[in-house]
């Protein structure tokens, strides 16, 4: 089944269930917190799980001459109903070992009861219960379809927890929290669905299995302390014990209602008269109810509260993603096999589609037959004369999710007529793999006998409307088409930004380049860690530049190399102390310092050391940490970093500092240091250590290649360690 089908199914189910899910989530938060709060009351005793009825009932009989029943709730609070020695009616929480009254059971307050009724039935009684149950079933399908989408997005189950590309805040949040809260959300959906199916008998209700025992008339009356059934039954297994109404009456019995059965006991002889085994569906119903309501324990109740909050945020972020995708609506007036102009789009988050759709709409307005669709929908286009490919590049030179099948389809469906084509690639020059996938597509089409290139490959940097219209102007003139080429028509809005103030600035001299340090102070409420990303907008437009950050004294610390004509680096270099900029901090939890690793190796080159210095400054754990750095020369810049590293060694925040200089007489790269210490790296990986890499993408590839060879030569699979998140990277 194609990704689009799963995506549409996921959306339709969400639309159908969203209203009820919002109500259920809001009330679920309140009810889960209430359940967690209940467990803070001092009505539970320490050794509760060890007590048997033999230890409890005789003692309670001494304190209370007449007991109607004893019940145990989900909090393990024991409630006794009966009369004391003075004939006063009692209904109280008690200590089962002494009979001491601990408190009086109180009904839920009106607010909680109101939320409970709304959560269960929307105040519509059985009709409402059916609607809520159906919404639970739809939510279960939503969770399943969402999981499948996530697996497909991450290219398989093995990469389920691999790094998520931050295409947009809503999408990033939707995917990352979807992975974190997947299990609680699935449990909420599944248990809610099961309870619904049972209540309305969609799942057949099994009959209880009752066993009647023939009483032995020869058995004599024995004291309560000799009842073997009481000796074998723990108080923690009890739901309720009903006491005989009249003492010394053979026809009056003890009735033990346990979690999995009900036992009737002769009050004189202690003999089991009848045993009713609850069917599996009934036991599972109780377990499902406890899971669904958080009555298992207070920790699970809190998790459910967070899961309910997350469901609300899922709904918001899911519709935000959908709105962004559907904001650029595709309207095809004609079928694909009727159209002269075929526009194919490869886009991960919809921004590339916006450019293509503007051309599509104008072609249609000019009376041209144009067809716009995903690259994955490539087929034989029998009337096509022009093929336009608009594609971004995902990850390290990979195809976007809606273009992954394109290469295979081109080979399967060669066009039967000559077609002119043009490829436009979208990306960012801050990445070495700038428009790499677009280049692959251009080469692929050039190898097809039916394809004729009309314009050479054109690339667009950072969604630049100006660069896009340069291509558009040439293509429109070549085909004598009246298409608007004003950049403003194709510009895209930047996201909402935060204000950060420059609180410190320093230049670090180098023999060859200018490197500088900036400390930016965000709002006091802004949460971030070393390894997160700072997105800046030098031209106050949609052009983003990303920088890995270190957290030092609650400020964002950047170490930046000034590039000639570098849009981002020049913008930051010109900032002075006291000035402010608008930017956003992007959570990059994948690249946070691992607290539970046995050992950590930090590998960087150049300014990639910035987040590592922040991590070392923040590091309060006792994880053994080793720093490997690559620089060009032993200049002031390198000496400065070396001094900082040795300071952390003296503070026992760093174990070793290893330096490689690539332009000294004895030239070395970090890869050479890794080869030299290959036994250390092999042992680190084998013992659940973590390697973090930050800096140039080329360095990352070279380092990974060396590590892969080391693993292969020692019978290990490097890819397995990557899948286990023991190799963390943040390179550009």
What does the model show?
A hairpin with an 8-residue loop joins strand 18 and strand 19 (545-548). The longest helix has 36 residues, at 3-38. By secondary structure, the chain is α/β, with parallel strands linked by helices. The protein is globular, with a radius of gyration of 34 Å. Helix 1 (3-38) packs across helix 4 and helix 4 (125-153) runs antiparallel to helix 6 (182-199). The strands form 4 sheets. Strands 4-3-2-1-6-7-8-9-5 form a 9-stranded antiparallel sheet, with no helix packed on it. It has a 7-stranded antiparallel sheet with strand order 19-18-22-16-17-21-20. It starts with a helix and ends with a strand. The chain has 20 helices and 27 strands. The relative contact order is 0.06.
Salient structural properties:
single chain, 732 residues, alpha/beta, seven-stranded antiparallel β-sheet, 27 strands, 39% helix
Characterize the overall form. globular
Largest sheet: 9 strands, antiparallel
Q: Counting H and I runs of at least 4 residues, what is the number of helices? A: 20
Q: Helix/strand-derived class?
A: alpha/beta
Stretches where pLDDT is under 50 for at least 5 consecutive residues are: none
pLDDT averaged residue by residue = 87
- Classify the beta-strand content into a percent band: 15-25%
From the N-terminal CA to the C-terminal CA, the straight-line distance is 35 Å
Radius of gyration using CA atoms only: 34 Å
Strand order of the largest sheet: 4-3-2-1-6-7-8-9-5
Task: State the helicity in percent bands.
Answer: 25-40%
Count of DSSP E strands?
27
């Amino acid at each position: 089944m194609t990704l689009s089908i799963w995506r549409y199914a996921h959306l339709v189910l969400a639309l159908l269930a969203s209203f009820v899910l919002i109500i259920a989530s809001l009330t679920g938060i309140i009810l889960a917190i209430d359940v967690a709060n209940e467990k803070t009351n001092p009505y539970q005793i320490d050794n509760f799980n060890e007590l048997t009825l033999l230890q409890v009932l005789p003692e309670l009989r001494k304190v209370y001459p007449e007991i109607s029943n004893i019940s145990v709730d989900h909090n393990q609070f024991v409630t006794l109903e009966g009369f004391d020695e003075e004939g006063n009616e009692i209904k109280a929480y008690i200590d089962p070992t002494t009979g001491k009254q601990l408190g009086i059971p109180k009904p839920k307050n009106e607010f909680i009861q109101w939320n409970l009724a709304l959560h269960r039935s929307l105040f519509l009684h059985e009709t409402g219960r059916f609607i809520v149950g159906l919404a639970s079933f739809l939510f279960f399908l939503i969770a399943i379809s969402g999981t499948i989408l996530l697996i497909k997005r991450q290219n398989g189950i093995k990469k389920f927890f691999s790094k998520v590309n931050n295409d947009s805040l809503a999408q990033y949040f939707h995917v990352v929290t979807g992975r974190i809260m997947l299990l609680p959300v699935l449990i909420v959906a599944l248990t809610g669905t099961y309870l619904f199916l049972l209540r309305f008998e969609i799942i057949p209700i099994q009959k209880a299995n009752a066993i009647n025992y023939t009483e032995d008339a020869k058995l004599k009356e024995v004291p309560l302390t000799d009842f073997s059934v009481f000796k074998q039954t723990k108080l923690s297994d009890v739901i309720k014990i009903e006491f005989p109404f009249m003492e010394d009456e053979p026809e009056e019995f003890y009735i033990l209602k346990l979690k999995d059965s009900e036992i009737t006991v002769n009050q004189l002889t202690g003999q089991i008269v009848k045993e009713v085994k609850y069917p599996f569906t009934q036991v599972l119903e109780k377990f499902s109810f406890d899971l669904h309501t958080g009555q298992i324990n207070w920790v699970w109740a809190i998790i459910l509260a967070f899961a309910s909050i997350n469901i609300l945020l899922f709904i918001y972020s899911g519709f935000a993603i959908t709105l962004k995708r559907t904001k650029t609506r595709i309207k095809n007036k004609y079928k694909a096999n009727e159209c002269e102009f075929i526009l194919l789009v490869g886009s991960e988050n919809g921004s590339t589609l916006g450019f293509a759709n503007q051309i599509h709409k104008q072609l249609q307005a000019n009376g041209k037959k144009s067809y716009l669709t995903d690259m994955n929908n490539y087929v034989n286009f029998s009337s096509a004369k022009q093929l336009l490919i608009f594609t971004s590049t995902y990850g390290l030179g990979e195809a976007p999710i809606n273009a992954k099948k394109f290469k295979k389809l081109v080979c399967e469906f060669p066009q039967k007529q000559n077609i002119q084509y043009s490829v436009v690639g979208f990306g960012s020059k801050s990445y070495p793999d700038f428009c790499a996938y677009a280049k692959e597509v251009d080469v692929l089409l050039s190898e097809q006998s039916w394809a004729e290139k009309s314009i050479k490959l054109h690339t667009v940097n950072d969604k630049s409307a100006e660069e896009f219209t340069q291509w558009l102007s040439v293509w429109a003139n070549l085909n004598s088409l009246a298409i608007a080429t004003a950049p403003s028509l194709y510009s895209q809005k930047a996201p909402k930004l935060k204000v950060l103030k420059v609180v410190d600035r320093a230049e670090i001299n180098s023999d060859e380049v200018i490197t500088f340090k900036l400390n930016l102070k965000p709002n006091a409420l802004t949460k971030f860690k070393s390894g997160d990303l700072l997105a800046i907008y030098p031209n106050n437009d949609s052009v983003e530049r990303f920088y890995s950050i270190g957290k030092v004294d609650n400020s964002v610390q950047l170490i930046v190399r000034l590039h000639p004509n570098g849009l981002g680096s020049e913008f930051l270099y010109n900032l002075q102390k006291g000035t402010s900029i608008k930017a956003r901090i992007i959570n990059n939890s994948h690249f946070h310092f691992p607290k539970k690793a046995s050992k950590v190796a930090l590998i960087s080159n150049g300014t990639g050391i910035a987040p590592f210095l922040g991590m070392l400054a923040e590091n309060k754990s006792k994880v053994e940490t080793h720093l490997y750095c690559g620089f060009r020369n032993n200049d002031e810049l390198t000496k400065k970093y070396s001094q900082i590293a040795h300071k952390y060694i003296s503070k026992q925040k760093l174990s070793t500092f290893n330096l490689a200089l690539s332009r000294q007489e004895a030239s070395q790269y970090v890869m050479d240091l890794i080869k030299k210490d290959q036994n250390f790296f092999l042992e680190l990986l084998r013992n659940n250590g973590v390697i973090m890499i930050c800096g140039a993408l080329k360095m990352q590839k070279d380092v990974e290649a060396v590590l892969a060879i080391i693993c292969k030569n020692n019978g290990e699979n490097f890819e397995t360690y990557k899948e286990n998140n023991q190799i963390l990277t943040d390179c550009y």
